[in-house]
Amino acid sequence: MNVKKILSLFLPVCLLLCSCGGLGDTADTADGQLTYYYTEEYKDDMVEKIERYNRWCINHSTEDMKIKLIKFDNYETMSQRLNIEVMAGGGPDLYSNYMDLPFEQLMKNDSFCDLNELIENDTSSDKLDLSGYNKTVMDAGVYNGKRYFIPAFYRVHTLVGEKELLEKFDLPTEQGFHLTFDNMDKVFANYLESPGDIRFLNGDERNGALNADAVMLRLVNSQVNFEKKTVGFDNEDFKSKLETLGQLRELSDVSDSEAEKVAEADSKYLFDPHNSYSNPIWLEIMMTLSDEFGGEYKVNDPVLYSCFEKDEDTYSAGIVDAVFVKKGCKKGGKALAFIKYLLGEHIQNLYTGTSEEYSYGGDVDYLPVLDSAFDNIVKDAGNILERFEMYIDSSGKKGGLHPITQALIDHIKKINSVELYFDLYKSSYDRNVAVPVLQDFRDGIIDAKKCADRLSSATKIYIGE
């Protein structure tokens, strides 16, 4: 994306902003309710949680604490309105990382409430104590000393392969192997030389983050430090890595024209995203009870890899739900009440599969930020047969954790880097800057050098260097 194209994206917004002086107040409500924008076209996960919270408020006779959901006809209209209002200092009271906003820039410009102040000034009996939460994940919301957002759930990046298949290409088979952008050339050397009919990674976006295109986005994001406003595209190392990922992508089913390959019953992949769970409960279900629940995704002798980390020292995770509060919000106490609800024991257990209310009819691949809720996950994963005795004949099966599940738990405990997004396609930077440039690279319109040059110039404009 060139400079003219980027400027063309912002100019209409600036013109609209100049003509909409009082627009920032349009989300205010006379009854003092908190507000949140959404659209049926893209009903994000935060909407469901807000609806659940509103029902809780009704059941507990605190209807004045409910959050008003303001619906838009489509996602594009909502995004345009959001960007205009936010730049004018207005907009809804609550924001989430599902919204198409340049959160990195907005935090740099101090556009959100410092949630530490809300927490510290709270005099209620249920004052929030962050010491019982995952510090690494929670501190992802701290920017320049201010806590601009609170994470509620997160996920880790992993890949699952089959031992026999990995051995065929001399790939590592130890549980929890740390795959990085630095070692991938060596790791995949034999596979790239002669892949045969084994494809790299299934193109099906089951969870929106485990396809070959998303891996390229991970590489791009690993070269950008939004807080320090630095980029690392101007080096031969990045271009070489991009070319390697381009080769791997060609060995994946990622285009509609290859849809018939995906449909083949005997399709084989080095890594299968259908088994790349973040939640140990669900990985244990797929592996220990694979005959009953694994179906076509059953993996023999599964091996867990970390999913393309930045370097040998990085173990990363991405946030699923992040809550921001508008700066100057006069309903800070109500916003804090919703945050407490999300971080409470009931919701943290419910959305991660350890609550008695939870139904295993569908998987929720979340990890909780509450330490005790994570302990419950580990406990339940180790006693999975107990939880499923009503559904299966467990005769002959043993309790305890599958080795790959233990490797996942060990991996989670190593997390030292947390990103605002798990699914990078929800990031304003990736959607509007990185994806268009990478698309030209994938289509062969530009080579790795030109791709790096364009990423560098466009990213510098985005971060305001």
Can you tell me the residue ranges where pLDDT is under 50 for at least 5 consecutive residues? 1-26, 254-259, 261-265
Helicity level, as a percent range? 40-55%
- At the fourth CATH level, what is the homologous superfamily of the largest domain? Periplasmic binding protein-like II
- CATH architecture group name of the largest domain: 3-Layer(aba) Sandwich
**Which fold does the CATH topology of the largest domain refer to?**
D-Maltodextrin-Binding Protein, domain 2
| Total of DSSP H or I helical runs spanning 4+ residues | 21
Shape: globular
Rounded average pLDDT: 85
Task: Tell me the structural class.
Answer: alpha/beta
Whole-number radius of gyration? 23 Å
Mind telling me the CATH class of the largest domain?
A: Alpha Beta
The total of beta strands comes to: 15
Strand content: 5-15%
Your description of this structure?
By secondary structure, this protein is α/β, with parallel strands linked by helices. The protein has two domains: 175 residues, Periplasmic binding protein-like II (D-Maltodextrin-Binding Protein, domain 2), CATH 3.40.190.10; 202 residues, Periplasmic binding protein-like II (D-Maltodextrin-Binding Protein, domain 2, 3-Layer(aba) Sandwich), CATH 3.40.190.10. Helix content is 42%, strand content 13%. The chain contains 21 helices and 15 strands. The strands form six sheets. Strands 3, 6, 13, 14 and 15 form a five-stranded mixed sheet that branches. Strand 4 and strand 5 form a beta hairpin. It is globular, with a radius of gyration of 23 Å.
